[in-house]
Write a structure and sequence with these properties.
The protein is an alpha+beta fold. It has helices spanning 11-16, 18-34, 41-54, 122-146, 154-166, 262-265, and strands at residues 58-59, 71-75, 78-80, 94-103, 106-115, 170-171, 177-179, 186-190, 207-210, 213-215, 221-223, 230-232, 238-240, 243-248, 251-254. The radius of gyration is 17 Å and the shape is globular. The relative contact order is 0.18.
Length: 276
């Protein structure tokens, strides 16, 4: 497969991606701490924007043509690209938060899914929490695979294999991960499911955003009237997790995790190595 540009970064360029990765991680941590019944998605957006700007960054989602917010807030059957607004989070909601920061012309991109507590509906909360956990753990399986595979598309096998082992979940195929660097979305595509092509070599300088999008039901989606929000056709809940990860001569480093991915990878036998 040929690419329009060199997809591998230099050591100096990898170091330049540390700051936007940290700012992205901080924005998600701040939003996670604020998620509760009664908060609006626009309030969460303001928290993320302040966090990124206080760290010297710019919300890179705002640079997308026609998008004016710092984060995407996708609730329940909305999978990705939900627009922050007056919507109030309710007990039992599952909300996916996608955020990104740009510092010095370099980008970070990551996402989390959080279930709003609801003591009155424990079965619903448990179902949605398992969905969020399966999506998150599939992400960590993909990241762990990046530490040892020879070609990028082997990651999709690790992600899909884990999700299959957890039950009957759907993996979106119309939306995939991507390279990241000077632009938030770069080549190559990063598939969250098995494909025949091996993809590019995994070698030092590769930086990718891995982002499985998982549903309780089917994988068919549609775009709402706002022309941004992607929702499931069957109305079932979805979860979205994402990290930006760099490959360097010493190993891998999760740019958008505060610990470089140490906690998430600990049980998988992979130790992230800081970028020198």
């Amino acid at each position: 497969m040929a690419f329009r540009r060199n997809i591998y970064k230099s050591p100096a360029e990898l170091r330049s991606m540390l700051a936007p990765g940290r700012a992205t991680a901080a924005s998600l941590a701040a939003v996670r701490a604020a998620i509760r019944p009664g908060v609006t998605t626009l309030e969460l957006d303001a928290i993320a924007e302040k966090t990124i700007r206080d760290l010297g960054g710019v919300p890179n989602f705002m640079k997308e043509p026609g998008y004016r917010h710092t984060i995407c807030t996708s609730v329940n059957d909305d999978v990705v690209h939900g627009i922050p607004g007056a919507r109030v989070l309710e007990p039992g909601d599952i909300v996916s938060i996608d955020s990104g920061a740009e510092i010095g012309g370099w980008n970070g991109d990551a996402a989390i899914s959080v279930v709003v507590p609801d003591a009155s509906r424990p079965e619903l909360v448990a179902e949605r929490q398992k969905l969020a956990d399966v999506a998150e753990q599939s992400l960590w399986r993909g990241i762990a695979a990046l530490a040892s595979v020879t070609h990028l598309n082997h990651i999709g096998d690790a992600i899909e294999g884990y999700i299959e082992s957890q039950g009957s979940y759907g993996i979106l195929e119309d939306y995939v991960g991507h390279g990241i660097g000077r632009s938030m979305h770069e080549e190559p595509p990063v598939f969250n499911y098995r494909v025949r092509d091996r993809g590019p070599q995994v070698k030092p300088g590769l930086v990718v955003a891995i982002e499985p999008m998982v549903t309780i039901g089917g994988i068919e989606t549609f775009t709402r009237e706002d022309e941004w929000t992607v929702a499931t056709v069957d109305g079932t809940a979805a979860a979205h997790w994402e990290h930006s990860v760099a490959v360097h001569p010493g190993g891998i480093w999760v740019l958008t995790a505060e610990d470089g991915g140490a906690a998430g990878l600990a049980s998988l036998g992979v130790v992230p190595v800081p970028i020198p």
